[in-house]
Write a structure and sequence with these properties.
By secondary structure, the protein is of the alpha/beta class. The protein has eight helices and five strands. It has a five-stranded parallel sheet with strand order 2-3-1-4-5, with helices on both faces. The two termini are about 25 Å apart.
């Protein structure tokens, strides 16, 4: 199965993904951004659009990479990756569904002030503010129009990455051990 951690920059996807991996047996982290970096390394370069997700090969390559890794290893892939364009999410999720790969889609949410503070105070990646801040408004628009309806929302505003990871791991393991079918519970871990 896939545990997809969505949300904008500063929501804690990368940190939470590493912690979720430690909590879910037989899981691995797959950084789908590396697929975009591979496409960016093509020489001469592909026509630049401002975001590698806009390149049509990126979405099916993410699906195929995930499928092949799961076929090889089994278990769970944790994918911390922002996808804010509904069409792109539909392409990825339908591609995974065609291979019968179940997906638990979580959105790590935080209010705008919290996100700005996290971006400004990031000591690991550095603030890189112009790039990361430009996605706050598209995230807010996606959250209001489609994203929160498509995922299990975890409000991380007042949670540590460890608390967030525990809530996600518990939700995944409870669903795996509980009844199947039906829509995912909304508001997982909301405060």
């Amino acid at each position: 199965m896939i545990v997809w951690l969505n949300g904008t920059h500063g929501a804690g996807k990368t940190t939470t993904g590493a912690l979720v991996r430690q909590l879910i047996p037989d899981s691995r982290v797959f950084d789908a951004e590396k697929v975009g970096e591979t496409l960016m390394d093509i020489t001469p370069g592909l026509p630049w659009t401002g975001n590698f997700q806009d390149w049509p090969p990126w979405r099916p390559l993410v699906v195929e990479t995930a499928r092949h890794v799961l076929d090889y290893t089994g278990g769970t892939l944790v994918i911390p990756m922002t996808v804010l364009v509904e069409q792109y999410w539909r392409e990825i999720s339908s591609g995974l569904a065609q291979h019968a790969i179940p997906v638990r889609h979580f959105v790590l949410h935080a209010d705008q002030d919290t996100l700005r503070g996290r971006i400004a105070g990031d000591t690991v990646l550095g603030p890189d503010s112009p790039f990361r801040l430009q996605y706050l408004e598209p995230y807010a628009e996606a959250a209001a129009t489609w994203l929160h309806a498509e995922a299990e929302v975890v409000d991380t505003t007042h949670l540590t990455p460890g608390q967030t990871a525990h809530r996600i791991a518990e939700a995944v393991q409870n669903r795996a051990n509980g009844p199947s079918g039906g829509p995912p519970d909304q508001g997982v871990g909301s405060t």
